Amino acid sequence: MAAREHNDVEIREDGEGPGAIVSFPFDAAAVERFRDAFPRARWDDDLAAWRIPGKTAMLRAARWLDRELPSAFSLADQRGRDSFSFEPIVSLYLKVADEIVVRTPYSRTVVEELRAVPWAWWNGDNKAWHVPFRSIDELRKRWPAIEAAAERSEPEARKQLRQAAKSAPEYEDAKAAMTERRRRRYPVPASEQPPLDRVLMSHEGPLVILEVTGEVVPAETAARHYPWSSGQPDDLVWALWRRPTHGELVKTWPARHPAAVSALLRGWWQPTLEELRIARRAARSLERARETRSRRGGSDDPAG
């Protein structure tokens, strides 16, 4: 059975064995009903979806979605529409169609707030967020933060913020830190050099070390940009690095225990499962954004 989609609700076959992959936006009541119907279902962090085992999983999942979600949606949407009519959200960033359509300048805060609204979904075709009326209460609660972030992201507001930032004392430090990060180098102890071409965790996040150059790190540079290295008794040398791919992070075997103090002092260690989960989500989001920009000729996709 081929994948079936309804906006951001999807069912597809599990490529790792008999079963189905089911995803839908988080809603506590829907998740509870789903788990009651499929007690063997398990959440997969990497897929951000549910795995249902069994040869008939696709059929059973499709029937459940067709039966449960539309009936619940219809009543909840009508109630939400009535609530919106009684207490509308008046804003330049919002208009009403079959759903509530939210279109703002790009803002990370806006994206985070709307992702937290149950059933909200990003429509890449019209570059807007769509929020069904069933989610009006949550949208109304988050709207002040959404609107304020959108206003701060307007071109003129961004320009004023940039000008104010340049006059702040921290501007030169932030500029120097960004320049240093773009060099893609990392200090490591000369006597405890990290393995090459392996995913490691560091104070700069997950890294794959490409080469240890042997060039000594200046003490001033280490103190300014890598303060964690102040307790390192050994000489520090530069290592060149790149970010690991999502595939590499998935294949990386996690450490059983958090990094010891000695590993933190040397600057690199084997990542734990929780560290890998965070890194995988970030890498997957980044790779999807790159694919979207490539398909659309370089335009940004706030949904990431």
Question: Could you characterize what this model shows?
Answer:
This protein has ten helices and 14 strands. It has 304 residues and is α+β, with helices and mostly antiparallel strands. The protein has three domains: 4-77; 88-155, Alpha-Beta Plaits, CATH 3.30.70; 183-295, no CATH class. The strands form three sheets. Strands 1-2-3-5-4 form a five-stranded antiparallel sheet, covered by helices on one side. It has a five-stranded antiparallel sheet with strand order 10-13-12-11-14. The protein has a four-stranded antiparallel sheet with strand order 6-7-9-8, with no helix packed on it. α3 (108-115) runs antiparallel to α4. The longest helix has 30 residues, at 57-86. The protein is flat and about 65 Å long.
Biggest sheet, open or closed, and with what strands and sense? 5 strands, antiparallel
Overall average residue pLDDT: 84
Radius of gyration: 24 Å
Number of helices: 10
Strand content: 15-25%
Order of helices and strands: EEEHEEHEEHEEHHHEEEHEHHEH
Content-based structural category: alpha+beta
Q: Level of helix content?
A: 40-55%
Q: How many E-type strands?
A: 14
Characterize the overall form: flat
Segments where pLDDT lies below 50 for 5+ residues? 1-7
Q: Which strand order does the major sheet show?
A: 1-2-3-5-4
Distance between the termini: 28 Å
How many discrete structural domains? 3
